[in-house]
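$ fold --in a.seq
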Amino acid sequence: MANTSSAKKCVRKMERKTNVNKNRRTNVRSTLRKVEDAITAGDQTAAKEALIAAEPAMMRAVGKGIFHKNTGARKISRLTKRVKTMSA
């Protein structure tokens, strides 16, 4: 447990930041899941639209430090590849 007032303040700040980051991470995962669902359903137009919404959300989360840079790039790359193979 924190003893000093500054340490107690740091704990309060960390709780707030943790909640914000959890919400952001949840929203990004939801957008990625929409792309996955559209791919499994075989709906190419919905998959493209969901991917267009998911990419900036993921990169915004990367910029905020919620996901690692390579993780974001890898996920978007794999989803883009899967959406492209649907058209072939």
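$ fold --in b.seq
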Amino acid sequence: MSTPVIETEEQQALRAAVAALGKRYGREYFTRVVAEGKHTDDLWAEAAKLGYLGVNLPEEYGGGGGGITELAIVLEELGAAGCPLLMLVVSPAICGTVIARFGTEEQKRQWLPGLADGSRKMAFGITEPDAGSNSHRITTTARRDPETGDWILNGRKVFISGVDIADATLIVGRTEAVSDKGARTGRLKPCLFIVPRDAPGFSRTPITMELAAPEKQFELVLDDVRLPADALVGGGTSHALDSGGEDTGLLQLFAGLNPERIMTAAFALGMARYALGRAVEYARDRQVWKVPVGAHQAIAHPLAQCHIDIELARLMMHKAAHLYDSGDDMGAGEAANMAKYAAGEAAVKTVDQAVHTLGGNGLTAEYGLASMITAARVARIAPVSREMILNFVSHQSLGLPKSY
């Protein structure tokens, strides 16, 4: 696939280097790890050693000093090689970004170097059983112990990736706002907490998924989980608890959600590129009549359309990453949602067309495409569904009224 002309020489060099790393592992490595019930530890460790995992994190904390643009390149190229690292979306992109932007100096020193060198991982917990896409219905709450100053968390989360391999989970909860005079307002505001994996009262249950992936999904229960004051991102006296001024907790949340959408787009595009590459190779070589099947327009045109969809989605992803890295959070929000939508649609369409191109071979383990049918759907429904993105665009971009 051609390299986008909008990339710098450094970004193009990064893309080529990561592509070479992905090629050394490939789809065979990925499927073997899944079949054995293991994790992609070898690839994660080598990517960390080469500096790819923390390419978006600040240099003063061991990162590469780049942005989401660079981290998206890493994930896309690994996906295009058939061995994506889903935890790149969660650990350095969401959690690393939130801590780098809003964490206290102690939180940055404690977490960012490990996230950058791969020695530590962090999961992200926002989705709840009864809240779905409605973040206003999040019921995980945090209350302050007036005697010790500790936080006490209670609630449930579902479909949380990689909790078993994460050192901690960044939990999105809600706490009662306090006025400037210290009085409770009765209004709940979002807040983010770093919850260690072994915290008493913090339990996890695997969710059985019909999805071939090394990263497992979990339901979490927080039952009077007691955390020190400094577990709150930004510190125990965060402005997220103030009734006036900016809602820092909400800013923290969206600081993580925009990179999540951009990285999900990269994940989907890598998957689509891998599927398209296998289909094109097969169509070029498979000969039943006088010419390869790829010479027939019924095969060639759908693959060409997939290529167009992929390239258009990549442009939107690059736009979103550029806006985010330049500090335009509002502009990045619209573009990130559009990029995630376009990439998810391209992934589903391309994987389906690739399987169809190979016919019966598309469903064999040998070609490794069948398992991607389910995986491609994930890009459509997570972390936000295509319908909610259409809601966002119709309301925020077009100014149309809400139906809810």
